[in-house]
């Protein structure tokens, strides 16, 4: 149970590294903290849910099955085949994938957040890193990591064909990356249009995505071209009814307020660094994806692709561009909000507490059975609710639903 406190202590340590000079200038502290964060999130063992299906899939391939029952994307399938042929068991394989995703995030923040690295990492740790590491949504996370690396490569090479190389890889890992094609084109349009035109285009799309009936009609029409029928199932619950998120909340208002500041300070944001025009356009895409997720919640996974860019842009705006007490208050609100959301998440579901770490059991030579691991948190967690839906705004605003 004591290790579970790290869910809150790790982001607090990042905030300390961001504001306390002794920590900010200490390489030993920085490398040690990143290593501890990697050990905590990448070596998690019996927490989350998705690992259960991934482990069954891995063992089915080890036993000679084609694994088609699990409907895995072919890129992820071949990763499994590769590491099985290398002789790795499931958990070392799974941990290696987590480490790749985690350090892709670290490289992304190092490149784009700069002096705000620790602040952005602390904000992202919250329910963001919990959602993609502890929940073990591995295919989506791998796809996000490839996309993040493509953005870094694009900024270095200044060549949009980089995306043409990386996107097929991301799509092969999870088909949610298909949405990146129109969204990246939209981002390019945002960067080329004047602010007034971007504002009207953005507002029109934001309103259109708020109409659930229209939005779902378009999705159903698009789903007719997906032969296996899984596309439409993504948007419905077990009873066959379409899911629906909140159309209006205080969080929506706060997100729109920050977006309005993006438009107002667009020139200053874009002049702050060479890559800020891209980050700003991706931030606007995150807001649209967030809007889609409040209409159809499954789109939360698409919003995750662009969430770091929104966080970096918002932190840069409040910390480096707007020099006022109000900006400082907004920054403090972001930090407090991330800690509140983290606490709410880990105490509202049995999947996170108690925390368990693979290394602890591996070093002791313990080989726990699959059934024991599946039931461990259900039996031992003090938080028994299983119907919890993580909040969709993970950066700014008040608690979802107020």
How would the blueprint of this fold be written?
Blueprint: H1 6-19, H2 21-24, H3 27-42, H4 51-62, H5 74-85, H6 90-112, H7 117-134, H8 138-157, H9 161-173, H10 180-192, H11 195-208, H12 212-223, H13 230-233, H14 250-264, H15 266-272, H16 276-295, H17 300-321, H18 325-346, H19 358-363, H20 370-380
Give an overview of the whole structure.
This protein has 402 residues and is mainly alpha-helical. It has one domain (2-210, 247-380). Helix content is 69%, strand content 0%. The chain is built from 20 helices and no strands. Helix 7 (117-134) packs antiparallel against helix 17 (300-321) and helix 17 runs antiparallel to helix 18.
Keywords:
single chain; 402 residues; mainly alpha; 69% helix; globular
Q: Please tell me the overall pLDDT.
A: 83
Domain count, please report it: 1
Strand content: under 5%
State the total count of DSSP E strands: 0
Low-confidence stretches: 237-243, 386-402
Please trace the helix and strand order, writing H or E for each element: HHHHHHHHHHHHHHHHHHHH
What distance separates the N and C termini? 30 Å
Overall geometric form: globular
Structural class: mainly alpha
The percent range for helix content is 55-70%
Q: How can the largest sheet be summarized? A: none
What is the count of helical runs?
20
- What integer value in Å does the Rg equal? 21 Å
């Amino acid at each position: 149970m004591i290790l579970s406190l790290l869910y809150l202590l790790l982001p607090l340590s990042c905030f300390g590294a961001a504001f306390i000079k002794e920590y900010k200038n200490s390489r030993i502290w920085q490398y040690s903290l990143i290593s501890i964060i990697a050990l905590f999130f990448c070596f998690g063992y019996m927490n989350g849910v998705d690992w259960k299906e991934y482990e069954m899939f891995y063992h089915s391939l080890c036993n000679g099955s084609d694994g088609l029952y699990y409907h895995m994307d072919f890129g992820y399938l071949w990763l499994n085949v590769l590491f099985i042929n290398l002789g790795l068991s499931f958990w070392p394989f799974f941990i290696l994938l987590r480490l790749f995703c985690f350090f892709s995030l670290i490289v992304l923040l190092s490149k784009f957040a700069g002096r705000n690295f620790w602040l952005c990492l602390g904000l992202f740790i919250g329910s963001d890193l919990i959602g993609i590491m502890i929940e073990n949504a591995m295919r989506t996370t791998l796809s996000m990591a490839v996309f993040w690396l493509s953005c870094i490569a694009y900024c270095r090479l200044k060549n949009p064909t980089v995306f043409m190389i990386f996107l097929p890889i991301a799509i092969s890992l999870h088909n949610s990356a298909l949405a990146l094609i129109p969204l990246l084109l939209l981002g390019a349009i945002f960067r080329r249009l004047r602010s007034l035109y971007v504002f009207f285009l953005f507002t029109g799309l934001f309103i259109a995505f708020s109409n659930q009936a229209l939005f779902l009609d378009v999705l159903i029409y698009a789903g007719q071209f997906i032969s296996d029928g899984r596309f439409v199932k993504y948007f419905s619950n077990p009873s066959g009814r379409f899911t629906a998120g909140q159309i209006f909340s205080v969080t929506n208002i706060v997100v729109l307020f920050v977006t309005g500041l993006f438009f107002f300070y667009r020139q200053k944001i874009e002049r702050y660094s060479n890559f800020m025009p891209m980050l700003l356009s991706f931030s606007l895409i995150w807001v649209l994806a967030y809007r889609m997720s409040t209409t159809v919640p499954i789109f939360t996974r698409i919003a995750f692709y662009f969430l770091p860019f929104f966080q970096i842009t918002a932190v840069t705006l409040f910390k480096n561009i707007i020099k006022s007490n109000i900006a400082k208050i907004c920054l403090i609100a972001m930090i407090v909000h991330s800690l509140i959301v983290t606490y709410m998440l880990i105490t509202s579901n049995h999947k996170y507490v108690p925390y368990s770490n693979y290394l602890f059991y591996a070093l002791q030579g313990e080989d726990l059975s699959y059934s024991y691991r599946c039931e461990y948190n259900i039996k031992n967690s003090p938080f028994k609710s299983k119907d919890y839906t993580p909040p969709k705004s993970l950066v700014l605003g008040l608690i979802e639903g107020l």
